[in-house]
Design brief:
The chain is an alpha/beta fold and 487 residues long. Helix 15 packs parallel to helix 17. It is built from 17 helices and 21 strands. The strands form 5 sheets. It has an 8-stranded parallel beta barrel with strand order 12-13-14-15-16-17-18-21, surrounded by 6 helices. A 6-stranded mixed beta sheet has the order 5-4-3-6-7-8, sandwiched between helices. The two termini are 53 Å apart. Pathway: Pyrimidine metabolism; UMP biosynthesis via de novo pathway; UMP from orotate: step 2/2; Pyrimidine metabolism; UMP biosynthesis via de novo pathway; UMP from orotate: step 1/2.
Length: 487
């Protein structure tokens, strides 16, 4: 096998976006930070030609019986199998995903006899279930299958699962090999390789569809909500979310205080009392009647003293040029002190680019939370809007998006993103202005919140410090139950 040609193909797959990083829902029901979409190669004849040559050579190299039929797993592998069939001059079969309801009603197309051997061709393997589906259908027609050729093995249990069913899997590429190729070429950083490797190691899929988590078998539980903050910090793409996840783990707090008061002195006095129990202080500085630079400096001092981050709940929602001015200029100069800001996704990706353009100092680490859902009754954030927001969060300026504001446990899947959920009270209900509230346990375990926003539950308490401590303890206990760790 020509290793130079193999590495060049690996880099080419990355260049044409057939191999990419982000947050992707997999067929097996979990999310992955890396995704292969080999369907795009049909638009690149040079890639198809090189891949066909390498696979044909690979088949000869592993000494698979050449007197067999070829069958591509439908549908992505069909073009690849067809080209190999032509180049190697081997007969090909086509397995339908469902039997025809007319004519011969065949499940397998092509000329063959019972007892003939068939070599499976597949593009990408995670659990191996697609290979085994094809194998079962072909075996039901009397064909003999002992081997499968795969372009990419994600190394998540597929080889073992197919082996258990009597099918040896031979891969041209493995995920770890491709990661190292990209690392050597300077396309990705070492930390990316380590983070993906750690994620994949924790996402081994067994033949019965269960997953392995910390050496224990769990059914469909490998998700953002089921992982610890420490583990998720390794996967975060945004430096601020990485630091916040570490902060939350060390401080044992998921409490965000909404300091919606109008006097700077009242805010500072409140923060001095509750600072030890919060991970984020959320402000609305445009309601502070006596806002000043000294107020900001005092806030920053308290944040450093009590180890929490500052979030300005500005909800930017304008074109890039305007939000850049709102973020960096004017009376508040938000970019100079707020670690985090909230942003509406309605304007599109330009709002992120506008905000990011203000950050000219590389040492100034900042992040945003995109609003995907709201907690108020009758809000207009549709499912389509939320889905589009998540696409922005995982595909646009991913090093700048720290998390998402939402109310649903299944919306934020990528472990490196944080879910912030407002509307938390020790006792749930609805206020006079249509704001919904849920208990700490419900918001964490049912809604999937990582950071929980509490405002009036603390602000109106007789003893604000005791109230903050109670919220912090109940929220943290709920998180520990969610990820199945003991305190």
């Amino acid at each position: 096998m020509d290793q130079t040609k193999l590495k060049e193909l690996g880099l080419r797959l990355f260049e044409i976006n057939a191999f990419k990083f982000g947050d992707f829902k997999m067929k097996v029901g979990i999310n992955s930070p890396v995704y292969f979409d080999l369907r795009v190669i049909v638009s690149y004849p040079d890639v198809m030609d090189t891949l066909t040559d390498l696979l044909t050579e690979f088949i000869k190299q592993i000494q698979v019986d050449t007197g067999v039929h070829l069958c591509g797993v439908p549908y992505t592998a069909l073009p690849v199998a067809t080209l190999i069939s032509i180049k190697a001059k081997q007969p090909m079969l086509i397995r339908r995903k469902e039997a025809k309801t007319y004519g011969t009603k065949k499940l397998v197309e092509g000329k063959f006899n019972a007892g003939d051997k068939c070599l499976i061709i597949e593009d990408v393997v995670t659990s191996g279930s697609s290979i085994l589906d094809t194998v079962n259908d072909l075996r039901s027609e009397g064909l003999v299958i002992t081997d499968a050729i795969v372009v990419v093995d994600r190394e998540q249990g597929g080889a073992q699962n197919t082996e258990e069913q009597g099918v040896r899997m031979h891969s041209l590429f493995t995920l770890s090999y491709l990661l190292n190729v990209l690392l050597e070429a300077g396309r990705i950083e070492e930390k990316t390789v380590q983070a993906v490797a750690k994620y994949i190691e924790g996402a081994q899929i067994k033949s019965d569809g269960s997953f392995m988590k910390n050496g224990t078998t769990v059914i469909n539980e490998l998700s953002r909500a089921g992982m610890t903050f420490e583990a998720r910090a390794d996967l975060a793409k945004c430096p601020v979310s990485k630091e916040l996840l570490k902060l939350m783990a060390s401080k044992k707090s998921t409490l965000c205080l909404a300091a919606d008061l109008t006097k700077s002195e009242d805010i500072l006095n409140l923060v001095e009392k509750v600072g030890p129990y919060i991970c984020v202080l959320k402000t609305h500085v445009d309601i502070v009647e006596d806002f000043s630079d000294n107020f900001v400096k005092s806030l920053q001092s308290l944040a450093k003293k009590h180890n929490f981050m500052l979030m300005e709940d500005r909800k930017f929602a304008d074109i890039g040029n305007t939000v850049a001015l709102q973020y960096g200029s004017g009376l508040f100069k938000i970019s100079s002190w707020a670690d985090l800001v909230t942003v509406h996704s309605l304007p599109g990706q330009g709002v992120l680019k506008g905000l990011k353009s203000v950050l000219t100092d590389p040492s100034q680490q900042r992040g945003v939370f995109l609003l995907a859902e709201m907690s108020s009754q009758g809000n207009l954030a549709t499912a389509q809007y939320s889905a589009s927001t998540m696409k922005m969060a995982t595909e646009v300026d991913v090093d700048f998006v720290a998390g998402v504001v939402c109310q649903s446990s299944d919306l934020v899947a990528f472990p490196g993103l944080l879910q912030l959920t407002p509307g938390v009270k020790l006792e749930g209900g609805v206020d006079d202005l249509g704001q919904n509230y849920d208990s700490p346990e419900h918001v964490v375990k049912e809604k999937g919140a990582d950071i929980c926003v509490v405002g009036r539950g603390i602000l109106t308490a007789k003893n604000q410090e005791d109230a903050a401590k109670q919220y912090q303890e109940r929220l943290w206990a709920a998180y520990c139950e969610r990820v199945a760790i003991s305190e």
